[in-house]
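Hi support team,

I submitted a single chain yesterday and got back a structure, but I'm not sure I'm reading the token output correctly. Could someone confirm the output below corresponds to the sequence I sent? I've pasted both exactly as they appear in my results page.

Thanks,
R.
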Amino acid sequence: MGHTQTPKGQRISPEIQATMLAMLLDSLDVDAVDLVASDSGGLVAQLFLAKYPRRVKTLLLTNCDVDENSPPSLFLPLIEQARKGTFVDDFIVPQLKDKEFARSANGIGGLAYSHPEGLADDTIEAYFRPLVETPLRKAQVNEYAVSMGTNSLVAIRDDLRRWKGPARMVWGLKDAFFGVQWAEWLDRTLPGSRGVRRVEGANVFFPEEMPDLIAEEARLLWRVTPPAAPGQL
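Hi R., thanks for writing in. Yes, this is the structure output for that exact sequence:
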């Protein structure tokens, strides 16, 4: 997907992504990591935690798939397009051709960003252009979207309940896909949860728009002191 050179015939799914991440860590000789994830990345992070619990030191999640809300009901029409092989051509290509449409209520801007009017043309190009460059890329995007139609999170409930590492949820309240009740579900389910921070007016991609907020929460979770300002000790 995207800039990743995925060979033809290689299966693509969130479960395979979790395995791929473990292989990456093995190649880097990294035993354990702090996971920060959002949207479909939050789905992959939970699958990774369930499969490799000792490799996860802390977990910081923003709006993402959780338990029965995977996939969210609003995503089902896009999955159906992907089953027909038309998701890329019907949803992504029009937004590349018309950036104002991409910033509209029905484009990625309105669907995912807190401030869609600030979505730059370069950002739209960076997200979408690699996905449409070849017929293979288009087919792989459709395949991945179809794979997300299978709920793989309900089966790992007990794995989440057994994992006792520090966890924190930071949830945008403007998001129509992933309601805050699912952050509350994670808070009840993860024994080491440090609670939920609710962010008013924030949509699903708010970590891009509010990186300082995510950094603040990460430092608290990791108990890291921010660097001193110039001239301070």
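A quick pointer for reading it: The longest helix spans residues 14-27. Let us know if anything else looks off.

Best,
Support desk
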